[in-house]
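Support request, please re-run this one:
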Amino acid sequence: MFDILSIVPGKKKITQNGWYSFNAICCHNNGHNPDRRGRGGIKKDGDNWAYACFNCGFKCGFTLGKSISSNAKLFLEWCGIDQTQIQKWSLESLQHKDLLDYIRIKKEKSKIKFNEHTLPNGELIDIDNSLHKKYRDYLYSRGINPNDYPFLITPNGVGRYKNRIVIPYTYKNKIVGHTSRFLDNKTPKYINEQQPGYVFGIDFQKPNREVCILVEGIFDALSINGCALTHNTINDDQASILSDLNRKIIFVPDRDKTGLKSCNRALELGYSVSIPNWDSSVKDVNDAVIKYGKLPTLLSILQSATTSKVKVELNRRKIERL
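Re-run finished. Output below.
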């Protein structure tokens, strides 16, 4: 890009706080007396800079990756730069945007960390233990094999807590939280211990897979070895974690109004969206697995995946009319 200090005419003096002071060139252009006391100042940060006049109050600045503002254009013209060159610099700055966004996102990714978490005292489900029957049968009713995940139960708990299945949350094979699914038909059905930005099921995703299926609920993800948001929105930290997988993401919303509203966010992030033509009784992926089986459900998700906003909108309207 350009060195603003080499463009500004006259002598410059650096101050203790990092400002370069000089006679402001904006004053007489703004109808004031010419500055003779060095009241113009520029502060730099790489290619970025800010200008302020402590006489007439004129301010402007430049940030690499953005177009040159109208005030900055005026300032550069006062420095003797023609409009053609200014426009060229503005376009060149915008060409840096994608690279700078990539660097910013990479920095943000490095900040995403989860603290280790202690699970409640309990015992792993044993399918051969008759005392574990109600927990085991519940998982089978959801189309889940109790041996496919380290489900924890707390039969010696007090009150509701003896009627729950604890599902550990892991990230990079460390315990970082959990959810409790209560079996007593009271509300709330779930109580979560979840850190912001967490995505359930990241540890399921094997390196050789080309696709990750993203769903809302825990049992949806467990049904198909996918990833779960555990709610109906996709926040920035979750998007960052998912991008680290470096593969195609297919978002399958719950078939309700709140779930369907998340489709636009998924499309903005570059994900495909899948709204298969399932029976009206099917409200989510887990329901589909129970009704159709795992393999047919996966095939229907893959076949219905699209990045077309028009197709997604048409499918959404069909579901909303059911």
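The longest strand covers residues 174-182. Residues 97-110 form the longest helix (14 residues).
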